[in-house]
């Protein structure tokens, strides 16, 4: 199943594409600032992406050395654009988008499908006015069909490609999806106060960030081998870019009832040291290994990636994806599912992961380093 941690890279491309589309200039007013988008998200979603600046990556991503390499993911159809017909515009600019919305969320739902997605916008004005301006930008002047669910209006727009988009709007917010039934679930979550904000495990790691952020929350463990029978866990991933590296940092959250088991399993991870792969558990062992490699007079690129890991980590895993692709089944427990299932797309990267236990908190860092 494509999703969970693996959906990260595809979502990045999704947001990049959304970022190049125009939304319209809106006045910088305070309307909508008190809207909590999380209160609309159904609790049974499998992942949530949140950002205050979807066009942040528009300037950054095209300048990276690996932009063309990861573009293969978009072309593969693993996560095609959901709203290309809705937001397409020939004169879109980054500045328009950055002034258009206060914040955006995207939730992903079972069964895994490009259609089972909901987008939530925190706007500076009426959500319906915001959407109508977007539709006019697309030169669609018609009045949408209206449906009523639990006393709330759902606007249904027919797009010029034969698709339909459903929208639920109010003061300061707009919620849009291909699926009308998902909009109904959003209304249920809000009215019955059964949204994701009521999930104690999720809220343990959720942070309302201030500016220029993009964070993915996935219903998964950051290290797959630690999941086992404990399915109710979440991991957060703050997304960062530079010219050579895709960098994901965050924490893993799970019920207190399985904490001792996770700690025990973390200490029992098998040591692996082969060509192009290293797996090591235990802070002292990690410190000793990194110190030994850092002291070498010369380093391979793989060894440089190892030496850049934290010596305080409780667990590290480093793999040259080109070296392990033919034996990927063996290393699946160490890899995000998307990476394991589509290893051929990442052959030009060295993948590094580290997990650090600090008291009762488990933080992680994933790094995809592009090989020149």
Structural description of this entry:
It is built from 14 helices and 14 strands. By secondary structure, the chain is an alpha+beta fold. A 14-stranded antiparallel β-sheet has the order 4-5-6-3-2-1-7-8-9-14-13-12-11-10, with helices on both faces. Helix 1 packs across helix 3. It is elongated and about 70 Å long.
Question: Brief overview, please?
Answer:
It contains 14 helices and 14 strands. α1 (about 5-20) packs across α3 and α10 (about 285-295) packs across α11. It starts with 6 loop residues before the first helix and ends with a strand.
Residue windows where pLDDT falls under 50 for at least 5 positions = 1-32, 72-99
The number of distinct helices, counting runs of at least 4 residues, comes to 14
- What proportion of the residues form beta strands (DSSP E)? 25-35%
**Helix amount:** 25-40%
Question: Looking at the structure, what is the overall shape?
Answer: elongated
SSE string, helices as H and strands as E:
HEHHHHEEHEEEHHEEEHEEHHEHHHEE
Overall SS class: alpha+beta
Count of domains: 2
Q: Characterize the main sheet.
A: 14 strands, antiparallel
Rg on CA atoms, Å: 22 Å
The end-to-end distance, rounded to whole angstroms, is 31 Å
How many β-strand runs?
14
Strand order of the largest sheet: 4-5-6-3-2-1-7-8-9-14-13-12-11-10
What's the average pLDDT? 78
């Amino acid at each position: 199943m494509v999703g969970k941690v693996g959906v990260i890279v595809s979502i990045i491309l999704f947001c990049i594409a959304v970022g190049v589309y125009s939304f319209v200039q809106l006045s910088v007013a305070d309307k909508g600032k008190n809207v909590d988008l999380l209160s609309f998200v159904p609790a049974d979603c499998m992942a949530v992406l949140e950002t205050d600046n979807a066009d942040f990556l528009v300037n950054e991503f095209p300048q990276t050395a690996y932009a063309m390499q990861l573009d293969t993911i978009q072309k593969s159809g693993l996560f095609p654009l959901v709203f290309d017909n809705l937001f397409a515009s020939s004169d879109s600019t980054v500045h328009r988008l950055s002034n258009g919305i206060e914040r955006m969320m995207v939730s992903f739902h079972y069964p895994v499908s490009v259609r089972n997605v909901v987008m939530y916008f925190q706007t500076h004005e009426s959500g319906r006015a915001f959407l109508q301006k977007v539709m006019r930008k697309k030169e669609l002047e018609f009045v949408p069909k209206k449906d009523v669910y639990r006393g709330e209006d759902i606007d249904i727009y027919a797009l010029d490609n034969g698709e339909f988009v459903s929208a639920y709007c109010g003061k300061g917010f707009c919620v849009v999806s291909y699926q009308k039934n998902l909009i109904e679930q959003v209304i249920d979550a809000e009215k019955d106060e059964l949204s994701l904000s009521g999930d104690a495990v999720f809220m343990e790691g959720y942070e309302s960030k201030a500016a220029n952020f993009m964070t993915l929350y996935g219903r998964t463990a950051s290290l797959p081998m630690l999941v086992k029978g404990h399915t109710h866990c979440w991991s957060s991933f703050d997304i960062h870019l530079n010219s050579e590296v895709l960098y994901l940092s965050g924490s893993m959250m799970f019920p207190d009832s399985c904490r001792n088991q996770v700690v025990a399993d973390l200490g029992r991870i098998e040591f692996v040291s082969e060509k192009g792969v290293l797996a090591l558990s235990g802070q002292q062992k990690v410190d000793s290994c990194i110190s030994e490699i850092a002291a070498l007079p010369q380093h391979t690129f793989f060894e440089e990636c190892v030496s850049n890991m934290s010596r305080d980590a409780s667990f590290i895993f480093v793999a040259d994806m080109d070296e392990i692709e033919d034996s990927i089944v063996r290393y699946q427990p160490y890899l995000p599912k998307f990476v394991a299932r589509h290893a051929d797309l990442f052959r030009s990267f060295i993948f590094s992961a580290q997990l650090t236990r600090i008291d009762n908190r488990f933080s992680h860092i994933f790094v995809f380093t592009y090989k020149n």
